[in-house]
Write a structure and sequence with these properties.
CATH architecture: 4-Layer Sandwich
CATH class: Alpha Beta
Strand order of the largest sheet: 3-4-7-9-8
Strand content: 15-25%
CATH superfamily: Metallo-dependent phosphatases
Shape: globular
Largest sheet: 5 strands, mixed
Radius of gyration: 17 Å
Helix content: 25-40%
Number of strands: 11
Order of helices and strands: EHEHHHHEEEEHEEEEEHH
């Protein structure tokens, strides 16, 4: 079985198209999305329409939830742009997405952790950086119930594959369209990233999974100009360079 895993598109239609084309080229039996579909000053409405047409299993991210739950003043710049670009029905569709998905008997998909879409599963903020979380912290975030063989998470926008508690495999595919969330960067000016569009392809042979963590070039200069047109230089820098 080959499973393509995408996450954190954040309204970047150009990055999404590049990832979808690469998935089609490599081949996959299924694709799953781990949330945060549209929040950005890029192409939120167009991205929603493209994502909706894919009809793929999608976990609700914190920004997908906040688009209805937060007031205008509470929303980030990206959240306000997205809310105003979408129709009421489109906002409701994002909010109604499931908080977790049991994709198969041995696969659990979440955005942050199984119980909190705003908490990183594999990282902790430390001195302006995202540092790897301790083993016991990851175990606590996963909970004490029986764990599936494969756990998929997003939220941090950082690609990772680790062996978790009890021998489970945890994969974060990285962000399709947002290397660092410019409204609330975890490490402004400190953490090295890049502007590539990221996702993962997982392959199961026998009883175990392997993972390809993929970073694609796409036209991020045009995407950065789109952010600049909405009057946000920090987003333009983040999209063009992977840093703010």
């Amino acid at each position: 079985m080959r499973l393509a895993v995408i996450s954190d598109i954040h309204g970047n239609l150009l990055a999404l198209e590049a990832v979808l084309a690469d998935i089609a080229r490599r081949g996959a039996d299924a694709t799953i999305n781990l949330g945060d579909v549209v929040a950005s000053p890029l192409w939120p409405r167009e991205t929603f329409e493209r994502w909706s047409a894919l009809n793929i299993p999608t976990v609700r991210g914190n920004h997908d939830r906040w688009i209805l739950e937060k007031t205008e003043a509470e929303l980030s710049f990206a959240g306000r742009i997205a809310r105003n670009a979408l129709t009421e029905a489109q906002r409701a569709t994002l909010h109604a997405l499931p908080a977790t998905i049991r994709f198969a008997e041995d696969i659990l998909a979440v955005h942050g952790t199984p119980t909190d879409d705003s908490t990183y599963l594999l990282e902790d903020p430390s001195s302006g950086l995202l540092a790897p979380a301790k083993r016991e912290t990851v175990a606590q975030r996963l909970g004490a119930e029986a764990r599936p063989q494969l756990i998929l998470c997003g939220h941090s926008h950082r690609q990772a594959i680790v062996q978790g508690p009890g021998g489970c495999t945890i994969v974060n595919p990285g962000s399709v369209g947002c290397p660092v969330f410019a409204d609330a960067p975890p490490a402004p000016g400190l953490e090295h990233r890049s502007p590539h569009a990221r996702y993962a392809v997982l392959t199961k042979r026998g009883a175990r999974w392997s993972a390809e963590l993929i970073a694609l070039e796409y036209d991020w200069d045009t995407a950065a100009r789109r952010a600049a047109e909405h009057g946000n230089a920090a987003w333009a820098r983040a999209i063009a360079t992977g840093a703010v």
